[in-house]
Amino acid sequence: MTENHSHPHKHPLQPDHREPSSYYELMGVALNELLLEKGIYTNDEMRAMIEAIENIDPSTHGAKVVARAWADPEFKTFLLADGVAAVKSIGLDPGYTILTALENTPEVHNVVVCTLCSCYPRALLGRPPVWYKSKEYRARVVREPRSVLREFGTIIADDVEVRVHDSTAELRYIVIPLQPEGSEDMDEEELSKLVTRDSMIGTALARNPHTANP
Question: 92 lies in a domain?
Answer without folding.
Answer: yes
